[in-house]
Design brief:
Layout: E1 2-8, H1 17-20, E2 26-35, E3 41-50, H2 51-60, E4 64-69, E5 74-83, H3 87-93, H4 95-99, E6 102-109, E7 115-121, H5 124-132, E8 140-147, H6 161-173, H7 184-191, H8 195-213
Antiparallel strand pairs: 1-7, 1-8, 2-3, 2-6, 3-5, 4-5, 6-7
Helix pairs in contact: 6-7, 6-8, 7-8
Length: 215
Amino acid sequence: MRSLTFVCTASDRHLGHELVEESNLTRERIYHINVMEDGTMILLGRLSGNLDHARDVFEAADDVFGYSISGEGEGSALAYVHARPPEEIRQFLRLPREHEVFFDFPIETTRNGGLRIVMIGETNEMLQKALADIPDEMEITVERLGAYPDAPGGMTGLLTDRQQEILDVALDLGYYRVPRQATHAEIAERVGLTVGTVTEHLQKIEARVFGTFEG
């Protein structure tokens, strides 16, 4: 397995920047991104700074359709955001579907506010083709191309395939929004499992993933 590490240093429109640039927040990392069929994006990440002001920014943003922030006041918190991303970001997030590559999560923030992204593929050629299709509007600096450093700590390693599917559905239905917009029964109906099984999976997801985020 091969990996390509690059930093996105575009100053105004890269992943999540347009959602926090007016709020004096710091994006610490991005844990999960999913592009919906309607072209909107759901994102789970961690922010630090004035969380109350962040709510004001999200409320006023025309392209934000839903959000949830786990904390209040000054501090660090999980943030769920459902938004319509710029076209170049939408194109970027389609790379895994079009090139058989994957993004390694979490995506970390660099000191200068960029995002360090690790893209994984079977061959260097696959990764280079995906790199060539990154929109020109995104400023990219390649740091490394080589064998994937198979180290623990990514979100993917914390969840089974079924748990990842249930988390995706829970986020899609608004289970983690405030106020909550979905029940265990609705998630169970979508994934074809019993309510009890979904409840058990959600408890394990929150213990493994969200518990780790709080560390």
